[in-house]
Amino acid sequence: MTKRDYYEILGLSKSAGPEEIKKSYRKLAMQFHPDRNPGNTEAEEKFKEASEAYEVLSDQNKRARYDRFGHQGLRDTGFHGFDNVNDIFSAFGDIFGGFSGGSIFDEFFGGGSHRRSYGRRSSGFQGSDLKVTLRLTLEEIAVGTEKTLKVKKFQQCTPCGGSGAKQGSKVIDCSTCGGSGELRQVSRSMFGQFINVSVCTTCGGEGKLIKDKCPHCSGEGRLKSDSTIRVDIPAGVSRGNYIPLRSQGNAGIRGGHSGDLIVVIEEIPHKHFQRDGDDIIYDLTITIPEAVLGTEAEIPVLNGSVKLKLEPGTHSGRVLRLRDKGIKHLNQSGKGDLLVMVKIFIPGKLSQKEKEMFKELLQSENLKPKKDSKSNSHPKSFFNRVKDSFS
Predict the structure, then answer these.
(1) What CA–CA distance (Å, rounded) separates 227 from 159?
(2) Which of 143, 300, 341, 390 is the most exposed place for a label (fewest CB within 10 A)?
(3) CATH 2.60.260.20 fits 120-158+219-268, yes or no
């Protein structure tokens, strides 16, 4: 696939200065950052595309080669862009002072506040995310609820405080990389000086070494145990919706950031209702006499029951709407409706007396359908009948 022009990606002219490049990239990075667009692959691709453009245009040598030779000129240097988000954080850590401080993302997204870490850090390795499925009733979904989850996960080791070191033992800087977690190799060519950065093989990129490991956690700084977590469920959620609980997943190794806990919503089938968006559907079955003469039926709703009057001559398939008896709209005001679909029960077996009664009714001209009668028309689908009930 042909790559887009880096200046076009950042919305800049070729005369743009370093501050303009940085400002433009910051705007795009904030817009498409993975933390702001969880699960959005298109946003992630735009994030990687903007990051690739920024890396080239913010580097004087790469920018000069790009301006002269285009994308082909960068291939000659071994630059191939980014394969994943981890590469982006690692690359910008190299450019702006390494993992231990001053990455551009610390500046853009607030270095003092917690942000998600996608790669190795000098304080350890990030814990993995956890996913749990939470089954909810329609009654709970309709108004929202609070749930308590019991999760078995890695938590910080209390005796060593998450450091992984035995009490009284010290955590020291790696002598191979000097505590940076990186090994840098400088090479020169006709195009200038290049720095190759790789993970330190001695400390695995942490920059720290433990002399005596904690006997409780074997040096990991975490132990698996049961945890109780409360989660607020907003009204109107649907099957497949998920709620991310930041830093509630597995604790990181030796002080690394904790992963997230992803709560995935599942709906428990209801004994009375079917759900259609924020509307709920109820099948009401009545007898032939009730359909002809009219009746009053007690209809269940999500928070009790209501009386519903059926007029004489109610047809099978008629849909009656009870406003605001459905599910609250997610993050909006208002509720869905309760749609009552009328069905007429036709008995399969009749007594002799009942048969005689129906035979007598067959002789009544008033009970025979007329040619212009609506009941003699072709039956409509359920959703067309729902549509008609709203008009």
Answers:
(1) 18
(2) 390
(3) yes
Supply the pTM of this predicted model.
0.59
Q: Show the low-confidence residues of the chain (pLDDT under 50).
A: 87, 89-122, 375-378, 390-391
Fold of 273-390: HSP40/DNAj peptide-binding domain (2.60.260)
Take residue 333 and report the two structure tokens written for it.
């005001």
Options 1.10.287.110, 3.20.20.80, 1.20.1260.10, 1.10.4030.10; CATH for 6-109 is: 1.10.287.110
308 contacts 322 by C-beta, under 8 angstroms: yes
* 100-139: pLDDT as tens digits: 333 344 434 433 333 444 444 445 688 999 999 999 999 9
Give the angle subtended at the CA of 253 by the CAs of 247 and 255, to the nearest 5°.
70
HSE-CB at 118 with a 13 A cutoff on CA atoms is 16
Token pair of 114 as six digits = 């917690």
